[in-house]
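Researcher: Re-running this chain for the archive, since the previous output was lost when a drive failed. Same request as before.
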Amino acid sequence: MIYFFYGDDSRRRRQKLSAVIEGMLGKKPDAVFQKIDSESWDEGRLEELIEGQGLFEQKCVVELDSLFEIGGDFISGVLARLAESRNIFFIAEGALDKKTLEKIKKHAEKVQEFPLTKKEAARDNRVFAMTDALGRRDRKSFWLLYQKYVLGGGVAEELHGLLLWQTKAMLLAQSDGATPKNTKQNPFVFKKSLEFSKNYSAAELRELSSRLVSLYHDARRGEVSFETALEKFVLSI
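Model: Regenerated structure tokens:
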């Protein structure tokens, strides 16, 4: 079974998704929750969850979080099996092309869209302007945009995920023999990441990635403020 939540308003989408999953787990106390995101994406793991094999023999509620950028071809190919699986799959995505949307909707039990308001769209545009500033290594613009983002109610944790994604995209594009196909990036994203990657060495990108991961875990443990730690990161590029 597939539940499909999509749209650019990531905050409302995640709030609704969390509430629905919590409610479902409350009704199914024996079920196990599994989440696959960009950091834990693995085709073999998803295969096991579809079939209910190996470690995942117990019934599962599975969240597939923003995976179409890196695993879209594979997931599109197994949608019918996801729908027929004994496990329950929640597909959560931002903006997708019309063809992909229609394909998922065809197999989904429930579909809900979360579009942005004009105010939220402006804030979202600032987020992508910040990932571009990171790519250009433009510290001043990055910091000014970050201040506007925070003052406008932006969530540092959501921005963090996109900054980590941009850093990894640059590192992948910089690797030997990289192509849109073998890095699993669309051609536009790959071209942009490749251009940005010229502003950093591979060692610098690995360090940025490591720092962002550490920042996330430190903030989760309450050792640092997410907003303050991210601002220090911005000022250090």
